[in-house]
Amino acid sequence: MEKINLWTKNFIALVCSNALLFGGFHILLPTLPLYAAANGATGAEIGIITGVFGFSAIFIRLFTDLGVSTVGKKNCLYLGLGISVFCTIGYALFNSVNEMIALRVLHGFGFGLTTTFSAVIAADIIPASRRGEGIGYFGLGSTAAMALAPAAGVLLITDYGFVPMFLIAALASGLAILGTKLCTVPKFVPDEKKSVVNISLLDKLFEKGTGIPALLTMLFGISYGSINTFIAMLAHEAQIPNAGYFFIVGTLCVFISRPIGGRIFDSKGAAWIILPGAVLLFAALLVLIQTTTLTMLLSAAVLYGLGGGFLLPALMTWMLNLVRPSRRSGASATFYNMLDVGTSAGAIGLGAIAGDVGFINMYKYSAGAMVLFLILFILQWLLKPKKQAVVEVEENMD
């Protein structure tokens, strides 16, 4: 059988647009707290400035269905990117604490729209038979941004100051708009089987039929987010130098694992990639608990990169495959909502625990989240095997 082409003009344009979007966002991750502190924000205020972003992203995703039916997926993506450009420039112009909080709320709206609709458009244009592989490649751009953009942001403010850094971040989001313009999106077909009247808040937060993968995504976010957030603190506590190499090694392993994992998902099914991915991430956490040298830290980075590279696109693809094409925007919103809930709540809760037991011992609790992940995944797979077959959906793309 002839293999359907994945690397179309539309797919390449969307991959580049997604990479630029995350590049503009991740430049701000390490630099915005520094900017807020330089403008007189206290530690508590910096926490609010940083944390309110995720909650506003979750809030705006409650209205993705309204956005699709009103203006369409591509226009929603344009709106999110436009908000991101405006807010990134706005940080340079409005630097009081209240102004930055307001901008972060608005920026969260933009990020919630862009992440949701970029992913769902990708799912629409990727051939169904290669969706797992395609989602894996789709995420590589954001993975590269996560590795390179934070370092670039720190370098920019060190050599040139905050304003040039904000302009570069805004330029990245602006170029993402151009990439989106080059992508042709399949026409939206309303789903007559699902009424849009009287949809409950619960249905807006969690797309029907995605309960188990949504819960697993939250547990994954707790453990995965704890590594991204606190690894530098662990290295400092263990007196390990050059901890930045952790992310370089981890990112390389993500690049290796994502294409492989996508092909396995498409050919074998979700269990063949989610189960080993969870075991690898759990092993990474166990190594971190015992880490005393840079070699051990980098060994954990390998396991972290391979496990996360397997799990993140697999959980998203599984969730997207469980719904009809017209419901993929809801499934995509659910995925990012649960990921944001896991990473945000995990960072707050695990940070509080670390204050009592230290950052090294904190990872025992993070590992506990992956133990629960494995138990739930194995139980649902054994008890409901028929539910896990990929839903054969009509290819009447939205």
Automatic annotation (TrEMBL):
One Gene Ontology CC term in the entry? plasma membrane
Indicate the segments forming the Major facilitator superfamily (MFS) profile domain, all copies.
10-388
One Pfam family of this protein, by short name? Answer: MFS_1
Q: Which domain of life is it from?
A: Bacteria
Q: Where do transmembrane segments lie in this chain?
A: 12-38, 44-64, 76-94, 100-123, 135-157, 163-184, 214-234, 240-257, 269-289, 301-323, 335-353, 365-383
Q: Print the keywords alphabetically.
A: Membrane, Transmembrane, Transmembrane helix, Transport
User: Where, per UniProt, does this protein localize?
Assistant: Cell membrane
Membrane topology for this entry?
Multi-pass membrane protein
Reply yes or no: does the keyword Transport apply: yes
User: What Gene Ontology molecular-function terms does this entry list?
Assistant: transmembrane transporter activity
Under the heading InterPro entries, the entry gives:
MFS, MFS_dom, MFS_Exporter, MFS_trans_sf
- State the protein's name: Predicted arabinose efflux permease, MFS family
UniProt source species: Propionispira arboris
What is the organism lineage in this UniProt record?
Bacteria, Bacillati, Bacillota, Negativicutes, Selenomonadales
